[in-house]
Amino acid sequence: MSLGWLARPGSALRGELAIPGDKSISHRAIMLAAIADGTSRVSGFLEGEDTRATARIFGQLGVAIESPSPSERIVHGVGLYGLTGSAEPLDCGNAGTGMRLLSGLLAGQGFDSILAGDESLSRRPMRRVIEPLMAMGARIESESGGLPPLRIHSNNNLQSIDYELQIASAQVKSAVLLAGLYAQGDTIVREAHPTRDYTERMLAALGWPIEFRPGFARLSGGHRLRATNIQVPADFSSAAFFLVAATLVPGSDLLLRRVGMNPRRTGLLTALRLMGADITLENAGKQGGEAVADLRVCHTPLRGIIVPEALVPDMIDEFPALFAAAALADGETRITGAAELRLKETDRIAAMTAALQLLGADIAETPDGAVIQGGNLHGGSVGSRGDHRVAMSLAIAAQRASGEVRIGDCANVATSFPGFLELASASGFGLRLA
Ligand code: S3P
């Protein structure tokens, strides 16, 4: 039976919140620690279904991973060539990041692998990684249309590539770089629109020689990774739901601790400030090589904006939350250049448009975005299409609706934000299981 929520306006959002660890960094921490020499400790690991699936997969591939306490992992790295194949499919669950990065990492192994996923992941496009990896010599079979499951054949002879990304995607960039660890010669990835650089940063932190700057990364095969301790900051994308909610709910004053502030992730902060939000950074510093800060957010009325297209890659996961903000802002918000949203866990443009329309919003979708007239929302029954970020964004919108909002199919919130319901309720949200 699908898990539903009942959301209604609660009280002002107040207090201090500890947001769970970053999903992108947690995936990469397990992957790179697994193929490093020696033992790494990962703290702040996201206990989400996506990242746990990645950890489980490395267990299947012969890596011993201990969980001494929640949000901690001790990874006994097996070295670059120490993984062992699994006859069973490797189940990535709902995680596009898991599947795409693993495609690159497994393309140059001396064993075959099958990468599989849930119903949503099984509909997501993999040609974007298959093509560059096959150009490197990888042998990968997919279902028709480039869909999972992927059958990756053993290959000890990957060649390097100089690859220009066709779409802004950190997952594709990372897949190519991870394959590049096993390839002969210099692998280069060029990006017209720079994306999150966690793979590059973490490779450097584990001692792999890599040259990188926004839009460019180069590494060569034939080195080794050294184990290290990795401290994962709080996930900006999870914090984003509270940034929007506290902005929308009168009287709110919320402090979010030690949130990752990598500039390739914080586009929503810029967009919300353009809309008039009151968000300040306190205690800005570094944690494990990543910029972090405490974010204080107080309620302010929002006005509609034209979202600058240059911000899109830096806030790609935050559009569902932005839809909620825009639907409750004063005036019109225009989103363009965001067609990638249609290829996420669900088509997020269609899902947010349909759900907010059911609550009375005036939204017109376009092929690559939407035009949203801000106004008021009423209650109703809406679907999240099994998408974690859609579900949480609708819970935010409901905090300002005039009636109760039933949100269907919320179980996948556990993929990225376990404990959202409890944390949100404790901070003032009107939210409970239906
Ligand atoms: C991610 C990259 C982004 C993002 C996803 C995580 C990553 O996907 O949407 O949630 O960790 O590299 P794309 O590379 O498809 O844009």
CATH topology of the largest domain: UDP-n-acetylglucosamine1-carboxyvinyl-transferase, Chain
Net shape: globular
Count of discrete alpha- or pi-helical segments spanning 4 or more residues: 13
- Rounded mean pLDDT score: 97
Q: What share of residues is helical?
A: 25-40%
Largest sheet: 4 strands, mixed
- CATH class of the largest domain equals Alpha Beta
Residue share in β-strands: 25-35%
Radius of gyration, in Å, reads 21 Å
What's a concise summary of this model?
With 434 residues, the protein is an alpha+beta fold. The protein has helices at residues 23-34, 49-60, 96-106, 127-135, 170-180, 198-205, 236-248, 267-274, 319-327, 348-358, 388-398, 413-416, 420-427, and strands at 5-8, 14-17, 37-43, 64-66, 72-78, 90-91, 113-116, 140-143, 147-152, 162-164, 186-190, 210-213, 216-220, 230-231, 253-260, 278-287, 290-298, 332-335, 362-366, 369-373, 380-383, 405-408, 430-433.
Could you characterize what this model shows?
This protein has 434 residues and is of the alpha+beta class. It folds into 2 domains: 5-20 and 233-433, Alpha-beta prism (UDP-n-acetylglucosamine1-carboxyvinyl-transferase, Chain), CATH 3.65.10; 23-231, Enolpyruvate transferase domain (UDP-n-acetylglucosamine1-carboxyvinyl-transferase, Chain), CATH 3.65.10.10. It has 13 helices and 23 strands. The strands form 6 sheets. The protein has a 4-stranded mixed sheet. Strands 2-15-17-16 form a 4-stranded mixed sheet. It has a 4-stranded mixed sheet with strand order 4-5-3-14, covered by helices on one side.
